[in-house]
Amino acid sequence: MGTGNHTGRMAKKKNTKKGSKPTSESAVRSSSEQKPSRRQLDKLDREILALVNQRAELTVQRTPHEKAPHGGPLVEDSQALEAVVKNSPGPLAEDSVRAIFRELLSGCHGISSRHRIAYLGPEYTYSHLAAIEQFGQTATLVPVGTIASVFEEVERGHADFGLIPIENSTDGRVVDALECLAKSSVKICGEVPLRIRHCLLGVGTRSDIRRVLSKPQAISQCRNWLGKHLPNAVLTAVASTADAARQASKDAKTAAIASQQAGVNHSLSVLARNIEDDPNNMTRFAVIGAESGPRTGNDKTALVYEVDHQPGALADSMGIFKRQRLNMTWIESFPVTGQPGRYQFFIEFEGHADELRPRRALAALGKKTLRLTVLGSYARAKPIG
Questions:
Q1: Closest-CA residue to 352 (of 302, 315, 278, 288)
Q2: Sequence ranges of the domains in the chain
Q3: What is the pTM of this model?
Q4: Do 174 and 167 meet the contact criterion of CB atoms below 8 Å apart?
Q5: Given Cys at both, which of 10, 85, 156, 377 links 292, Cβ 3.0 to 4.6 Å?
Q6: Given this model, what pLDDT does residue 39 score?
Q7: Are the folds of 199-277 and 295-379 the same?
């Protein structure tokens, strides 16, 4: 009896050991399958690289008749980018997918012809960030000192495109941009609605801050936050948010209101994020070039005109948009430079100037206005940032 029991216990123990081995191997195999090896990642990297270069070759090989008209690449790239972002299953965030493919498209175009883009500098201003969002960092981005200089670069052919701020959701119109649009021969061929996320940047701590620098518009957009959190700080306007960051890097008692990227560039710490009073704060930038953008089916058209200074003249012109069922998305009145008492009107409406109803509206406006200039048609863009 004793021997039999002992034998049974030994067999049971032996069977347990035999059964445990496959379980352990299965667990190891499962763990190995869940954790890709460096070799697997390297293989994927090589495959991605091959596909990226294949994409670039196809872009270059497109024959001239297949290429989009001037301004068309802006639309093509925007549509391709939105399609990729929309179809991404994750886990990469939309902003990450957008950034990766934006640079891919920019690099593909840069092989055959590297676009030259003029923007209101210096680097790491919001204009610079908007230019990167639209054209990628492979394009040659050229900072200039004034909005008028952006127009001049495009008019003289020194830049393929320009990028200018035209409207902010808090501060409204950008006067210099509207003045230049009214006088220039260039056309709006795209738009970049960029969400503005202001940061308080500095080299010290928030308790050290005695002075805050930034562009006047940025200070205005953060005035409530500053009054609540830094009520005793002196607010000083400077030429740009990037210049504010540069000056703040030299003084622990000075902070700047600027983008996080400007802080990284000048080795500043982020003392507070998203300090704009309006969480939906946005600046809309216009892309300007030699021609309008092509039709996409989701476009807007901008124009400027002047009417007789008499009762009902403006109302009559507005009635044209109603009769043609065109929805206006923006309207601004603006004095004619050097002509006291005379005003011009900037209008933006849904539709492309080549479409039937907009064509009818423009023809009717031409009969009721003293001066009419179509500033351009362009694809409607989604907010970014």
A1: 302
A2: 50-61+68-195, 199-277, 295-379
A3: 0.76
A4: yes
A5: 377
A6: 84
A7: no
